[in-house]
Design brief:
It is a single chain. With about 475 residues, the chain is an alpha/beta fold. The chain contains 17 helices and 15 strands. Strands 3-5-4-8-7-9 form a six-stranded mixed β-sheet. The chain has a five-stranded mixed β-sheet with strand order 2-1-6-10-15, with helices on both faces. Strand 11, helix 13 and strand 12 form a beta-alpha-beta unit.
Length: about 475
């Protein structure tokens, strides 16, 4: 099976890989990189028509778009990890990079890598798997339906671990017809090793990116865990034991139950989407020692923890080059525009999702930094009124903290979180910002290390 047919295009790692690799090739990311720029306008019109449908119809269209990408269960044994790794490295321009990051997916990391002229190789990819006849609120049924397929995938790929994730809160539309298989490499695949040897500049750094976030899981096999729920506003306790917010969500979606009944957790594991399996770090260090490559470790406990540090780093970088420092661009999930961020002289701040927790983290950052004259906020639309979702009006209040211009960019507030035209509109609105800045020369890795090392919430240190 072709790797490009197996990997989800709508996932965080894929979107971040697209955004960074296109930036390094001197390109922006129209329509989140899903279609050529020439098709962005007609696609916007099509999605605008979808926005006018009733809510239930919009949700079905969203779910169908994801289902169309999912692979049949009987083909999972055809997936090969080395082909997946080759597909990843094939995104990048064939040249030397002063830094290569390997590990956790992170939107702030995309901007750090763009500033450093660096590449990033993800540990985790999402394989969406088709299955029918299982309701989103039936985690036991989901596990039973695809357990054998997960074992077939692992039997064909002894270098992978499988994190089977089921989240009926934030992903309930997608998982109505598919299963989320997140695979993680525990060792550097051959394609990654070759890419590092061929494309890391002499004296360059190999940096392991370690998000230490963990989540309760159920052990299925030695290399197979089942994760119920995921990072967002709902807590692991709410996923596993219920509560008023869970009951309210299930009532709004007319579910026959008021709490979920997942397989009992018997331990915890690296969080499926964001966490790093630490075995990869050991292999990175062994590989680097063998080839005499300097290594560093970038570690943080939750994905969003890196966002203030990278924002402050970029702001000081701009100031050093007499570029504007008064414009903030807040991005969300895979709505990332590193090229337009630099072209418009915007300081990047990445939010994981549109939740109240992510909004509170942004508010905390704004409380502690110098004020911004302009704040633009992009909102990712995941199609459902999930637990703890902050409304467009809430995000608009945060944007209003700007001294001059505070707006939601490319957002139809009346349609959010089902404003699917926003995936195209956000790029178009950013490209209309009149101020243009020259792309600065890449940031020096030593300067980045100095700033990041000064942050209590982020670790940047020589590889362990």
């Amino acid at each position: 099976m072709k790797a490009s047919k197996a990997v989800a295009s709508f996932d965080s790692a894929t979107g971040m890989l697209r955004a960074l690799s296109r930036f390094l090739a001197g390109r922006d990311v129209p329509a989140i990189g899903q279609v050529p720029a020439a098709f962005a306008v007609p696609l916007s019109g099509l999605l605008g028509a979808v926005n006018r449908l009733p809510i239930a119809a919009r949700e079905r269209v969203y779910a169908a778009s994801g289902w169309a990408e999912a692979i049949a269960q009987h083909r999972l044994g055809e997936v090969r990890s080395e082909a997946l790794a080759t597909w990843v490295t094939g995104h990048y321009p064939r040249r030397r990079y002063p830094v290569i990051f390997v590990g956790s997916a992170n939107g702030a990391l995309v901007h750090l890598a763009a500033a450093l002229d660096a590449a990033w190789l993800p540990q985790t990819l999402l394989l969406p798997v088709r299955r029918r006849g299982v309701a989103p609120d039936d985690p036991r049924g989901d596990l039973a339906a695809v357990r054998a397929s997960g074992r077939a995938l692992l039997a064909a790929n002894p270098d992978l671990v499988l994190h089977h994730m089921h989240d009926p809160n934030q992903d309930r539309l997608m998982i109505a017809g598919m299963t989320y298989f997140r695979i993680k490499w525990r060792r550097l695949p051959l394609a990654y090793r070759q890419f590092i040897r061929d494309h890391l500049a002499p004296g360059g750094l190999l940096v392991g990116v370690d998000c230490t976030l963990r989540w309760p899981t159920t052990r299925i096999d030695d290399r197979y865990v089942f994760q119920f729920g995921a990072l967002g506003d709902a807590t692991p306790e709410e996923y596993h034991h219920g509560g008023p917010r869970v009951a309210d969500l299930l009532a709004r979606y007319h579910a026959p139950t008021r709490r979920w009944d997942p397989p009992p957790a018997d331990g915890d594991s690296p969080e499926a989407e964001w966490g790093l399996d630490p075995a990869l770090l050991d292999d990175i260090h062994a590989f680097a020692d063998r080839h005499r490559i300097p290594t560093r470790l970038l570690r943080f406990d939750t994905p969003e923890r890196l966002s203030p540090a990278v924002a402050d780093l970029c702001r000081s970088w701009y100031a050093d080059r007499d570029l504007p420092t008064d414009r903030l661009l807040v991005e969300s999930f895979l709505l990332l525009e590193p090229w337009w961020t630099l072209r418009t002289g915007s300081v990047p701040y990445w939010s994981v999702f549109g939740t109240q927790a992510s909004r509170a983290a942004l508010e905390s950052y704004l409380d502690t930094c110098d004020p911004y004259d302009e704040i633009r906020i992009l909102l990712f639309n995941h199609g459902t009124d999930s637990i703890g979702l902050a409304g467009a009006h809430d995000w608009r209040r945060t944007a209003a903290r700007a001294r001059k211009i505070g707006v939601l960019t490319g957002v139809d507030a009346s349609a959010y979180p089902r404003d699917f035209a926003g995936f195209v509109r956000s790029h178009r609105e950013l490209s209309k910002i009149r101020t243009r800045c020259p792309l600065p020369l890449p940031l020096d890795a030593a300067r980045a290390a100095t700033v990041l090392s000064s942050r209590d919430e982020v670790i940047w240190q020589p590889g362990e």
